[in-house]
Amino acid sequence: MNVSVAWEGVYPALLTPFTADDQLDLPLFEKNLHAQLDAGVHGFIIGGSLGEASTLLNHEKIDLLQSALAVCESNVPVLVNIAEQATKQAVACAQEAEAAGADGLMLLPPMRYPADARETVTFFKTVAQETALPIMIYNNPYDYKIMTTVAMFDELAKLPNIQAVKESTRDLTNITRMRNAFGDRFKLMGGVDTLALEALLLGCDGWVGGLVDAFPQETMAIYELAKAGQVADALEIYRWFMPLLELDIHPKLVQYIKLAAQATGIGSEYVRAPRLPLIGTEREQVLNVINTALAKRPTTEKLMSYK
């Protein structure tokens, strides 16, 4: 039975842990899930950019999904990311995820081909019409070179299962444009870690996070404080967090955030080729950011006092 997706709160874009011999590390994956559930996250997204979607085999995505569903025990929704080049592949992946028990989907525009507005809307509509699952559109023109505009969302609003948007345009005014155009028709989830507090204060319903994979308690504290109107307290943690959050907006965000999750004991730095683990000066620089933050990390007692 599917869990209802509220599209509110913190949804980690999960890392995919690998072993030294390039197999899925499901025990470590489950350890991370438990740490995030203990912190109070509201849902999970499997196989996104941080999850190394481009290198995962379809059966591996299903293995991750089934592992997450077993850990979550229907307490929070588990979503699968759809990032494919061909429409029929996207439909097949959506249907496979639905059959395997996914509670919802995050849907990217066509990969590699820079589709125009008509093609992009047709792509989204076709996938949505072939599944009953609720869908969040990932709007990230910065990385994927396709902007889903207000006019395009006006067309997508006709499909009831297209329900939410991961707002990653890096243009905070787009949150207000979407609210002015659609009110509450679409739930909005901030998708850029370095703009997360701003997005929440401007009216986003939730936060699809990256550094939450390494720092779930801190992420949850910012979200809860922002929603409670305790902006000064949220800002104090956010300012501490910012050097770490900036790891999320680098081309090597996967390697950087995996190194952070390893440092906090809930991940490893193994990645899948063509990515390679960090070495030399670059690794030292990232570790310096992580270790400097860890030395000044808010105490668990302080974070718990916000609940």
Automatic annotation (TrEMBL):
The keyword Lyase applies. Keywords: Lyase. InterPro entries: Aldolase_TIM, DapA-like. SUPFAM superfamilies: Aldolase. The keyword Transmembrane helix does not apply. It comes from the Bacteria. Belongs to the DapA family. This is Dihydrodipicolinate synthase family protein. It comes from Spirosoma liriopis.
